[in-house]
Design a protein that fits this description.
By secondary structure, the protein is of the alpha/beta class. The chain has a single domain, classed as Rossmann fold (3-Layer(aba) Sandwich), CATH 3.40.50.720. The protein has 8 helices and 8 strands. It has a 6-stranded parallel beta sheet, sandwiched between helices. A two-stranded parallel sheet has the order 6-7. Strand 3, helix 3 and strand 4 form a beta-alpha-beta unit. The longest helix has 21 residues. 49% of the residues are buried. It comes from Actinophytocola oryzae.
């Protein structure tokens, strides 16, 4: 397998390149703009799969129009060029924010916990809208061009050390991260999820939620729900520090189970 990675210099991209290289998988890093058809097409020469991570990953990184158009045009360009060059497997970065609830300035509550891929949509920002459209573009590519596309809904992803800092911040104001279920994933687990999505025996388009096996806060999950989300229905019992993102699809479709927790020391 030869894999094109867009956004290869980013947080998840650099870890993905490292994991692919360690597995002796040849990697091509897109050198230019993922919205550029000619550049993407040239980079796809002799590639068998694409990992598309390039994006403006927050609504504050540009005007609403720039964030939206950059992200959706880049994703469509990558999908269309992959199809034209005979590439039939694409893994792309979606987000826990794709339903819109977490970044919505009106502060709606999630319809339920654990968050899953069918969570009702309530979008009021351009970034979340772009991720929702990216997932629809993935479904179109599968339908129109017979591609297999896995859209991974990443939560907060950073190194273990950086996540420890985020955990400290969240502990000072736990309500702030409630709408994402206090979810996180280490960057190496994010790369492992991508590796799994590249090789899982799938066809068609799939949206897959991801999370570590616990929450960002080292507090019993039931206690967090009772205190900060008492009006949100929890559709299954939770014990210990169980996560509030349903990762059933990750486990059953990709065979992916997170290995790392920021609350457990590395061996």
């Amino acid at each position: 397998m030869r894999v094109l990675v867009t956004g290869a210099a980013g947080v998840i991209g650099s870890a993905t390149v490292r994991h692919l290289t360690a597995a002796d998988v040849p990697v091509v890093a897109l050198p230019g703009d993922a919205t550029d058809e000619a550049g993407v097409g040239a980079a796809l020469a002799d590639c068998d799969a694409v990992v598309h991570l390039a994006a403006l990953a927050h609504p504050s990184l540009g005007t609403p129009r720039r964030v939206f158009t950059n992200n959706v045009v880049a994703t469509f360009t990558v999908l269309a060029q992959a199809a034209e060059h005979g590439v039939r497997r694409v893994v792309l970065a979606s987000s826990v924010n794709a339903p819109g609830v977490a970044m919505n300035p009106h502060l709606p509550l999630p319809a339920y916990f654990p968050l899953d891929e069918d969570l009702p949509v309530d979008i009021a920002d351009a970034y979340s809208l772009s991720k929702q459209v990216d997932e629809t573009s993935a479904a179109m590519a599968a339908r129109a061009w017979g591609m297999t596309v896995v859209a991974l809904r990443f939560p907060l992803v950073r190194s273990r050390a950086e996540l420890a800092g985020f955990a400290e911040k969240a502990a000072a104001n736990p309500a702030e991260a409630m709408r994402t279920g206090w979810s996180y994933l280490t960057v190496d687990d994010a790369a492992r999820a991508i590796m799994a999505a590249l090789t899982a025996p799938l066809t068609g388009a799939h949206v897959v939620g991801l999370s570590a096996a616990d929450t960002l806060l080292d507090v019993p999950t039931r206690e967090l729900l009772d205190r900060y989300a008492p009006d949100v229905h929890c559709r299954q019992s939770v014990t210990g520090t169980a996560p509030l993102v349903d990762t059933t699809r990750a486990r059953e479709l990709l065979g992916f189970v997170p290995r790392e927790s920021i609350h457990v020391e590395e061996p």
